[in-house]
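Q: What structure does this chain adopt?
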Amino acid sequence: MRTNYNDPAKLWADMLQGVALYVDIRTLSEFAAGHPPGALHVPLYEDRAGKRVLQHNFISTLKALRDRTPHTTVLVLACRTGARSKQACALIAAYKLTNIIEFPGGWTGQVDAWGRRTAPGWRDASLPVADDKSTGGPDV
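A:
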């Protein structure tokens, strides 16, 4: 079973085939600035008084999405650089949700502590981009 997507082009091809569904867990402003066509927006965090806190319905929203999506479709959690998607996958492991994985490259590409690119991101892969909330699908 796949544990993540390292190749944005493979992820896009699987999205077109209905094998993968891109679930963008970034903030609303990040999502609105650009996301893959057909991506769903399920933010991991919300801003409260200048602090990021876990979105209160993140787990229940993912559960509902998993329940209404064919179980053969992989839900691919993605953020900006892969850090939040890694956190989200660790968080949902306790809930035994299946066929949910991460896209480590996220939107801009994963980088290590020295700023070196370790995984390609969607934005730099010359793949289609939707740049407003309405074209990327409704929040779940």
